[in-house]
Amino acid sequence: MRINYPGTIRIIRLPCTGKVDVIHILRAFEKGADGVYVVGCLEGECRFSNGNLRAKKRIEQAQQILDAIGIGGERAQMYNLSSADGPRFAEYAVEMTEKIKKLGPNPLKKAKEKMAA
Amino acid sequence: MSTKTPSKLEKILSAGHMAVTSECGPPRGSDSEDITKKAEMIKNHVDAINITDNQTSVTRLCSLASCIHLKKMGVEPTLQMVTRDRNRIALQSDILGAASFDIYNILCLSGDHQNFGDCPQGQNVFDIDSIQLIQTVRQMRDEGKFLGGDDINRPPQMFVGAAANPFADPFEIRVPRLAKKIAAGVEFIQTQCIYNLEKFELWMKQACDRGLHEKVYILAGVTPFKSAGMAKYMKNRVPGMDVPDDVVKRMSGVPKENQAEEGINICVETIQRLKEVEGVKGFHIMAIEWEDKVPEIVERTGLYPRPDIS
Amino acid sequence: MIVAEKKPVEEIIDYVKDFKKLLIAGCNECVTVCEAGGKKEVGILASALRMYFLNEGKKVEIDEVTLERQCDHEYLEEIRDRIDKYDAVLSLACGVGVQFMAEKYFSTPVFPGVNTCFLGAAEERGVWSERCQACGQCILGETAGICPISRCAKRLLNGPCGGSTKGKCEINKDLDCAWQLIIDRLKELNRLDDYEKIMPIKDWSTERAGGPRKVVREDVRL
User: Fold this and answer.
1) Which positions in chain A have a beta carbon within 8 angstroms of at least one beta carbon in chain C?
2) Within a 10 A sphere around the Cβ of C70, how many other Cβ atoms?
3) Res. B1: pLDDT tops 60
């Protein structure tokens, strides 16, 4: 399968999405990411029983914080798919990329430029 | 039995008559006529009228002032007092205030949690509980002493009552709890509204087996249903209330326009059956915002006329 | 332990929005265990605030520190050498730690980052519930090891009230009736007869009612 997905995405591999914490998501935005999405296994199919469910709740927490500080919670999102489902992986990558493009760049980038000027 | 207070209610019970009491909820405002009108409807059919103390934690005109209005019209009041809103200073002070108007009956309660009322964000007090309030009134009356130990000039003369709920959980301690209230010094009991007669009779039997019925006057509580809706509400929404399915069914089984009448019928039948139960010394009829029906209930159950004892 | 909950970020922002140099101070004790004010929460809050200020175009320096405890002099002293660098401290310790910090660094504004809730136990992961109100006169010996002061909504010493239904409290169906628990345990201990002992009127002077409290132990003083 030679499926293409947008080159704007930087993949960070994890043993399980259960490893993701709120701070990881926030740091990504702090460093300038325009959006962060976590792709976990299908619900009910976590190898460690509920790693992906934990990730989901942590994304929700991060979304709340992002809303509160004016970055926007919709820039963080959780997806679930089977590890064998390459086409869907690409589909989600496109979907997320389009969504972030619509939202525009991370507002912190502009803020940083202003600050430097 | 000899009486310890000038209470008419105590005299009636002590003379061996079945007592009849009722209750009125004070208004959410300051119009005293709201109370006197209700009392006027029932005063010839009952021996004493309870005035509730901010029942269900909804702010109302105070029980003490309402009792004074009753007293002024020649009706015997029973001051309900909850420990939710007052500390021991305020409780004792209000007891003296009531005594200064010669109010001779008091019902000691802990009170519904404020969570149910119009001030759920308020603080509660619960400095003492209902059982300790019974002890407090008895100490003030019998020893003539404040909780702090000082003497009271002209101590209160109050016939001391409390509530009992035979239907709350756990059932196994419901009779021991009654015993505890008796040990604390309670002299009369008004029970929670009775719809589950079997359960009430079982509780009463267990109380009699322990001889408790000889140590306290138990008035069985009844409340007529106005509608099937009210029966369902009481069953599902009111904590500690036991309304059996067949009672709800009976209420919903009659057409809407006849439901009120059916509610009165159930109430009358309940009183008639409970009159025969050992240990039941009278009835407490709580006709919630339906005081005008009390005379009918009293008359239909043969409890009228009321004994003339002053 | 002392159980606390994180304050909403909006509320915290409102406290600190006008400062230029902030220290966020966590505590390694209770608030770490209940995941409200430990190192991890300090990191999250610091990151969130940095982004907030940057986005607002404000230059604010935010440092992070997590002390062993904020209720003891020796650990609070660890930041004495740099406290003057900061315009304000955001303490994620319980109310005790926040106050001790404020007392110690008298001229530095100190703000709370958590709501201190109660003295409780971790019932299960992510669930904490109240067990003690620190009334200063423990009666657990008489109540089968279950505290009616902290666990009965009316703190009845002679309960249960008439609202106890199927083992639950009248104010909330998810809340156990403390007196049901007491009775169950008295039974288990073959002490149900004790139920009929009347608990006397409580002396609340050792509780909040008696004014702020103090314990002085001459044997352990220096």
Assistant:
1) 21-23, 26-27, 29-30, 64-65, 68-71, 107-108, 111-112, 114-115
2) 27
3) no
Exposed, middle or buried, A56 (CB in 10 Å: 0-12/13-18/19+)? middle
Structural domain includes residue A9: no
B226 in any annotated domain:
yes
ipTM of the complex: 0.93
Q: What confidence tens digit (pLDDT) does each residue in B155-212 have?
A: 999 999 999 999 999 999 999 999 999 999 999 999 999 999 999 999 999 999 999 9
b/e sequence A33-52, b meaning 16+ C-beta within 10 Å = bbbbbbbbbeeeebeeeebb
The verdict on residue B305 lying in a domain is: no
- Would residue A97 count as lying in a domain? yes
Residue entry with tokens 């969570």: B115
Looking at domain C2-118, its CATH class is alpha beta
From chain C, the residues in CB contact with A112 under 8 A are: 54
* Dihedral angle over CA of B294, B256, B275, B131, nearest 10: -70
- Pseudo-torsion of CA B104, B109, B114, B119, nearest 10°? 0
Number of domains in chain B: 1
At a CB cut-off of 8 Å and minimum separation 6, what does B123 contact? none
Distances (CA, A) of A33 to A74, A76, A108, C217: 13, 10, 9, 56
Ordered by start, the domain boundaries in chain C are 2-118, 133-208
The CATH number linked to B34 is 3.20.20.220
Range of the domain at B289: 8-297
Amino acid sitting at position C67: L
How many CB atoms lie under 10 A from the CB of residue A87?
11
What DSSP character marks residue A61? H
Which residues of chain C lie closer than 8 angstroms to B115, CB-CB?
153, 171-172
* SS3 state of residue C187: helix
* Domain annotation covers residue B266: yes
Profile chain A (117 residues) by mean pLDDT over runs of 10 residues: 89 95 97 97 94 97 97 97 92 96 96 88
Contact B127, B147 (CB under 8 A): no
Both tokens assigned to B171: 């059932």
Please, what sign has the CA dihedral across residues A97, A103, A109, A113? positive
